[in-house]
Predict the structure.
Amino acid sequence: MAPAASRAVVVALALLSSCRAIWASEYFSTLTLFNNELHKQGCSSLSEWEEYAADCESSILQLEDPDCEEGSNPPCESVFSLNAEKILNQAKLFIEQKKIPFPVENHNTNEELAIGYVLIGNGLYDEAIKHYSLLLQGDPELVSAIYGRGIAYGKKSLQILSPLGRISEALGDLTKAIQLQPSARLYRHRGTLLFISEDYVAAMEDFQQSLELKKNQPIAMLYKGLTFFHRGMLKEAIETFKEALKLKPDFIDAYKSLGQAYRELGDFESAMESFQKALMLNQNHIQSLQLRGMMLYHHGSLQEAIGNFKRCLQLEPYNEVCQYMKGLSHVAMGQFYEGIKAQTKYSRYLHSHLDIPVAEYNVDQDLPGNFKNHWAKNLPFLIEDYEEQPGLQPHIKDVLPQNFDSYSSDVQKLICTADHLGALMQYDTPGFLPNRRIHRAMGLATLEVMQAMHRTWSNSKVRVNGKTRQMQWRDMFDIAVKWRRGQIINIRYLAYFDNILDFIKDRILVYHGAYNPRGLVEVRQALENVNKVEDLLPIMKQFNSKTRDGFTVNSKVPSMKDLGKEYDGFTITITGDRVGNMLFSVETQTTEERTQQYQSEIESLYKDLTAKGKALMLSTELGDADAVCNLILSLVYYFCNLMPLSRGSSVVAYSVVMGALMASGKEVMGRIPKGKLVDFESMTTPSPDIFSKTAKHWMNLKSLPGWYQSLPSVAETFPSSRTMIEVLNTDSSSHCPKKS
């Protein structure tokens, strides 16, 4: 819990969002992968400047010399040394094969137009722009020249790897061409440029217009679906990808995009089916192998994921994503000799501690702060006084597969119970893929927290970091953290936009009530007509002269320890860009002072919880158990408001809640309701009391059955990293009873 760290989660309404791969990256942009694939095919970018798989792969646009063979003497002539005669010959061939878009009746003009397209086809974009500009001086309304110059501008921008470049000129030319002679092709090409510019709403409108003029365009339908995908409108994207497949049943990219959309929606089975269909059409389709492997990894099916990454690397040995994810999967399974290639530093540390009881060391304390800071931020490891981790030691063997039947019946019951408890923590909201491995890990964490808290309340000490002492609140969370390796920043908070909208309205009214009381009534009336987050920015510009490109509101968290005092909560920022897109971000900005405030609050609650927990061990009063429950939920309320937004910190917090409640004699029977997220629920709730009431309602607490007390000790059954990894690797699917 670095005191001066800052973490953020960004949610885009109409702007592509991405997050870096830290330990286990949760999200890779389909657009990024898509563009990378097109570059590999030899296209400067999106190949749909013509019909599907046309321009960038057309032999006509490559100016191949039929009399020239590779390695011949004299060598083949470079495209950059083409003489006028060859360019003219290729232009004539272009005309003969009727490849000129928007031809005119004058043959000489068509030849001039064709020369420009030959230049474009060979990457000579500056020459093409000059050529078309000269033509347009003579005839400003020559549609084919306007269109060709627009294509050259667009391809030149993409060639220099700039999303801006000269796309504005390209859009200008295409817009003028559309005004003079609207066509499906022109709308599709302008839509493609708008898509690259991340103006997804305008791009969608152009693709739709193109499809109305010419229905049978699978690639335009695919791009229309991608505009929905990048706006977070996954269900609309799925329906559009299906329409593309009706137009072209063997459309691999549509199956791949459909699979990714289902994966983002959290529908594992449908995503698997779509990726499988893409690979049936082309078993060597690298993107589908890569995306399916990543989905399997995040589903907890590590061995299957490795198979996909291996196949990917056979086809493309230097694929960084597949290499990284393959290493990640091996490390997660305890196969360090394979995984070490991808994750040297942390793999070495974990390998050297593989057989040491986890109660005897602490990763957080052993690794220096600079190391953790550089690791989390993907910075170079140029750190003074950093001691290199020891290399792999031959006497420490990799983790071997473990059979479920090799465990005793008591341990088998422990594992099955953990699987059930972990499943109760699964979010039922778009974007959260069920992960069986995480379910087991956090179920075991819950049981270990329960057992540790029970011992603490019974006046027993616990073994922490090689020492025996009284349990502290950090120890409670450290138990869960050791089972939940890594951190995942998750950007899927679309379900909370409506709640956040109401929250922002309230904060705006609080602000104007303090600084602009006379205009409060007018502001309130304007806000009543706002139904979408993106409508807030114009309202704020209207009533606050300081608002230009965006505004910020902050939440406040009330103190239970010091009544009347408030702590900084999270920050919401809404900004607009030049094309009308909105960026909506929710950040938790942590400073040392803020961290100390929250820790003081949590320590006060934990002290009270320990006292009441010990009293509960000697009491049978219902009110005592309810008081303990409220303290547990209040403690986690402050923890969630303190920590960065991530699925990691959220599931750790919930496992602590469940474990501590079980220690107090209460079993959680209910699942987290559809659309609810524990961390966001705590952050958007104005007080710990209200959060406690909300959480208890869905938890459906019942008395804990007595057999839980007879389960083996989690800490003693799985004392080391090796035994922990072994149990997470074990398949119990055919042994544990299914529970609703």
Summary: DSSP finds 32 helices and eight strands in the chain.
